Amino acid sequence: MYLKRAMATVSDLYEFWLDQTKRKELLLLPESHISSTVNDRSSNLLPQYKSIRKDHDGYLVETHNPRLYATNMIMVGTWYRNEEQDLYPLVMPIISPLPSNEWGAEPLNLAHWRVAIAALIETHARWKWVHAVRAYWKGDDTWTYGGALGWRMENCKKLQQDDGEPCVGRAILTHVLIKHLTRHQQIEQDTPCRP
Questions:
Q1: pTM value?
Q2: Do 96 and 3 meet the contact criterion of CB atoms below 8 Å apart?
Q3: What's the number of CA atoms in the CB half-sphere (13 Å) around residue 17?
Q4: Of 79, 75, 73, nearest to 98 (Cα)?
Q5: Distance (Å, rounded) from C-alpha 16 to C-alpha 95?
Q6: What is the per-residue pLDDT across 37-73, written as a single tens digit (0 to 9) for each?
Q7: What residues contact 103, with CB distance under 8 A and at least 6 apart?
Q8: pLDDT mean over 146-155
Q9: CA–CA separation, 89 and 8 (whole Å)
């Protein structure tokens, strides 16, 4: 329940700032880059993302792995438009917004991801990925976010903590992240050692 409440707070905070910024495409999350490999992979996955069965949250039901209980990363398909082209697909990762000393980012189960998925996808698309699309197309600022194609859970991976400068998007969540880390430290202290 704690993780679900934390993700609800993440969702509320991101939704609040999306509304405050009038859903403009501001660079508030760390920059990402698109290579020709990412572009090719996204184009190849487009038919799958368009045709596969999705549920009400856009989760790709047919990719569900019942053995994958929790993960700290999901892959999201989104699309973009400009004056000449109406569908440029992009498949990019979203890392769990909650920190973890063990994994780098807290593994979340499907129910936890669902609580904040809409806000996570929109903030990443508007505050991060659309800028990568514009840079890939040689600074063409006419590219805008079109919508989501769906998402799926990836295998959990140990991630390095980002020691770079804190971004605005991450700073929005500061009190949630501090509370989360404090809670985990308290749990570790309260847990008796086992032989």
A1: 0.87
A2: no
A3: 23
A4: 73
A5: 20
A6: 999 999 998 888 889 999 999 999 999 999 999 999 9
A7: 72, 156, 157, 158, 159
A8: 96
A9: 28
Please give the structure tokens belonging to residue 90. 């992009």
* DSSP structural state of residue 76: E
Q: Are 149 and 79 in contact (CB under 8 A)?
A: yes
| pLDDT at residue 8 greater than cutoff 90 | yes
- Average pLDDT of span 93-104: 91
Amino acid identity of 194?
A: R
What are the φ/ψ torsions at residue 177 (nearest 5 degrees)?
A: -65, -40
| Rounded Cα gap, residues 111 and 121, in angstroms | 16
Radius of gyration of the chain (CA): 17
Q: How large is the angle between the packed helices 110-124 and 2-20, nearest 10 degrees?
A: 20
Tell whether the model's pLDDT for residue 186 goes beyond 90. Answer: no
Contact predicate 64/53, CB 8 Å: no
| Locus of tokens 């991801």 | 113
* C-alpha distances out from residue 112 to 4, 50, 82, 136, 195, Å: 5, 25, 34, 33, 32
Of the pLDDT bands very low, low, confident and very high (cuts 50, 70, 90), residue 148 is very high
Cβ(148)–Cβ(89) below 8 Å: no
- Do the beta carbons of residue 88 and residue 153 sit within 8 Å? no
